[in-house]
Write a structure and sequence with these properties.
Blueprint: H1 7-16, E1 20-24, H2 28-41, E2 45-49, H3 51-57, H4 59-75, E3 82-89, H5 92-100, E4 105-108, H6 115-129, E5 135-140, E6 145-147, E7 150-152, H7 162-172, E8 176-179, H8 198-207, E9 214-216, H9 224-232, H10 245-253, E10 256-261, H11 263-279, H12 286-309
Parallel strand pairs: 1-2, 1-10, 2-3, 3-4, 4-5, 5-8, 8-9, 9-10
Antiparallel strand pairs: 6-7
Length: 315
């Protein structure tokens, strides 16, 4: 199977009551770990590229790595749907560039603008993408937190207004909508007890067409095993806390069809690399410590697919 759009993925997810994992990719080992996990669990998967990944690895490198992963899957007799998605596209030009260069889905993030400007920008991207068969994700509301080029303070964060969400989708024609119900970017999501505004999710869903795909950004769980490993082996990330897997699993059974996961991948890799360096200081071969990190990413993604997303055996 070649790269696919998210359209059919989301249609099946909405009917089946599960969500597709959208995992941020930055290098070969991350892509290998995610795709191997999806392949072994027979799950569709979305590989997404952020502004930071574009700067770090170059989108051409990342696209070729994704194509290599698909080819390896074919040789192994696997045939899982994979979408290549732009995460948090800042403007029309970035979205256009990704569409023109083979991405099958893009996100235009106009959440920093007022409602009318967000509508106009999103509609412009939709009008370019749809004739080319590309799906478009948009965002309404503001998630707090810091991740790559996204930086929103707690004071500036804003829940999605359900009435505005309904009007926004109708006027823009976007294929999926990221909403703010309490998730946040980065590894420091909550000061107190984690909670999500499921009442907002229900109101948004009720006003949109049946099965319309809702997206959750900032949905890493920040597994404490990885946080503790990082800190045990020389790290300094105290107090990191994410969205509980129970809350995310509940959202996946509702109208949420796409759940974004990034920080958990970073933590899994970093924790295992730190452990390798600490326990085996003689190691200087990147294949050893990156290989160990790749296995950790695969195992973590498999856990998410089976126990949180529910997308296993849905390919």
């Amino acid at each position: 199977m070649s790269l696919t759009t998210t359209k059919e993925m989301f249609e099946k997810a909405a009917k089946g009551g599960y969500a597709i994992g959208a995992f941020n990719v930055n290098n070969m080992e991350i892509i290998q770990g995610i795709v191997e996990a999806a392949s072994e669990t027979n799950s569709p998967v979305i590989l997404q590229v952020s502004a930071g990944a574009r700067k770090y690895a170059n989108p051409i490198y990342l696209k070729k790595l994704v194509e290599a992963a698909i080819e390896c899957n074919k040789e192994a007799g696997k045939d899982i749907p994979i979408a290549l998605h732009l995460d948090h596209g800042a403007d029309f030009e970035i979205c256009k560039d990704c569409i023109d260069n083979g991405f099958t889905s893009v996100m235009i993030d106009g959440s920093k603008y007022d409602f009318e400007e967000n509508v106009a920008l999103t509609k412009k991207v939709v009008e370019y993408a749809h004739p080319r068969g590309i799906t478009v994700e948009a965002e309404l509301g503001k998630l707090a937190g810091v991740e790559d080029d996204v930086n929103v303070s707690d004071d500036d964060a804003m829940y999605t207004d359900p009435d505005q969400a309904i009007e926004f989708v109708k006027r823009t024609g976007c294929d999926s909508l990221a909403i703010a119900i309490g998730t946040s970017h980065g590894a420091y999501k909550f000061k107190g007890e984690p909670k999500l505004r499921f009442d907002i999710l229900e109101k948004v869903s009720a006003g949109l067409p049946d099965g319309y795909p809702i997206v959750l950004h900032g949905a890493s769980s920040v597994p404490q095993e990885f946080v503790n490993m990082c800190n045990e082996y020389g790290g300094n990330i105290p107090g990191a806390k994410g969205v509980t897997e129970e809350l995310l699993a509940k959202a996946a059974k509702m109208s949420v069809c796409k759940i974004n996961i990034d920080s958990d991948i970073r933590l899994a890799m970093t924790a295992n690399i730190r452990e390798c360096f600490s326990k085996s200081p003689e190691v200087f071969d990147p294949r050893i410590y990156l290989g160990q990190a790749r296995i950790a990413v695969k195992d973590m993604v498999k856990h998410k697919i089976i126990n949180v997303l529910g997308s296993n055996d849905k390919a």
